[in-house]
Write a structure and sequence with these properties.
Order of helices and strands: HHEEEEEEEEEEEEEEEHH
Distance between the termini: 30 Å
Strand content: 25-35%
CATH class of the largest domain: Alpha Beta
CATH architecture of the largest domain: Alpha-Beta Complex
Helix content: 10-25%
Shape: elongated
Number of strands: 15
CATH topology of the largest domain: Outer Surface Protein A, domain 3
Largest sheet: 13 strands, antiparallel
Oligomer: single chain
Radius of gyration: 30 Å
């Protein structure tokens, strides 16, 4: 199970826990109403025992109990529902503020604000315990889980969209960041193979397309020729010559020289030498040799040859094309730097678009 599948599982369990706490509260409120009516008909048991002088029994058996304060307001109810037992506590205004219940999925605790909105939910599910926190608009803002495969903390924005996830699974710790639409926009992980950093821009804010540009030949890799691969010649592929392709010369293409293009020399361009650029030698740059860089040999790097959840991606065309372009335009130093890291000396090996 990868990170995205684990996040999806967390989202499902969070929604289920929220629904369960709502059900517990609804049933508790109904039970409280029934108990109040019943108490009005039969009187208060404690008062009846006191007036009759009868001794209270050692064991009391019932399907529900109701506790009132000195003013006769309901402050707590203990009820056995169809799905299991439930304990509900009320404030001085008669609003339910806490509900504890047990059903077939396990125990759950819900805490509510003065308006009756669920603000915190604690559950122990089959996969493990989970805590959910909600805002006044009923949107989730944080979720903490400790499932079988490891703990995870998920943070949400004011619209209930997941924006960050911190995890510590068996394969290593990781941090994932997302844009306002929930698309992955960056991450950091430490796996057995080594650290990996992803500094991708948010897909919703980019004026560019990116393609896998690592050295993996399998599905999703920079050298993969099938759909989604860096050398795929079909629509949207890293070696496609049509719109949105890695070898397209128009807007959004890998050979585009305008803003966002793979041959653009301005900010975020494939030939930009500043931060975030394809020819930047600092962190996250296309010529950076550290984690997340285009010349990094570890997971997430442009020279990594294995499968990776977050492969190195770039808006540049394939490496062979970049080297040829740099040489043709007198940028021999950059071309030689890339060539040396690929350990290639014959310029002819970079001819054509069928290799990286």
């Amino acid at each position: 199970m990868n990170t995205e599948e684990r996040l999806a599982n967390l989202e499902r369990e969070l929604a289920r826990a929220k629904r369960r706490n709502r059900h517990i509260l609804v049933f508790a409120l109904v039970a409280a109403g029934v108990a109040v009516v019943a108490a009005a008909w039969i009187g208060t048991p404690g008062k009846v025992l006191a007036e009759s002088g009868a001794k209270a029994p050692n064991v009391v058996r019932a399907s529900e109990f109701i506790l009132e304060d000195a003013d006769g307001k309901v402050r707590a109810t203990l009820t056995v529902l169809k799905d299991g037992p439930s304990l509900c506590l009320y404030d001085q205004n008669g609003k339910a503020r806490a509900a504890l219940g047990v059903n077939k999925d396990g125990p759950g605790l819900g805490l509510y604000d003065e308006n009756g909105r669920l603000r915190a939910a604690l559950s122990t599910l089959k996969d493990g315990p989970m805590l959910g926190l909600y805002d006044e608009k009923d949107n989730p803002r944080a979720a903490l889980s400790a499932f079988k495969d490891g703990p995870m903390l998920r943070l949400y924005d004011e619209n209930g969209k997941g924006r960050a996830a911190l995890s510590a699974f068996k394969d290593g710790p990781g941090l994932r960041l997302y844009d306002e639409k929930g698309n992955p926009s960056g991450g950091l992980s430490v796996l057995k193979e080594g650290p990996s950093m992803d500094l991708r821009k948010s897909q919703s804010s980019m004026l560019r397309n990116t393609w896998p540009r690592d050295q993996y030949t399998g599905p999703g890799g920079g050298r993969y020729t099938g759909p989604g691969g860096g050398l795929y010649t079909g629509p949207g592929g890293g070696a496609y010559t049509g719109p949105d392709g890695g070898l397209y010369t128009g807007p959004g293409g890998g050979l585009y020289t305008g803003p966002g293009g793979g041959l653009y020399t301005g900010p975020e361009g494939g030939l930009y030498t500043g931060p975030g650029g394809g020819l930047y030698t600092g962190p996250g740059g296309g010529l950076y040799t550290g984690p997340g860089g285009g010349l990094y040999t570890g997971p997430g790097g442009g020279l990594y040859t294995g499968p990776c959840e977050q492969p190195y991606r770039s808006n540049m065309p394939p490496w062979t094309v970049i080297i040829e372009y740099l040489e043709q335009h007198g940028m021999n130093e950059c071309a030689e730097l890339i060539r040396s890291h690929f350990a290639l000396v014959n310029v002819g090996e970079f001819r054509g678009h069928n290799t990286q």
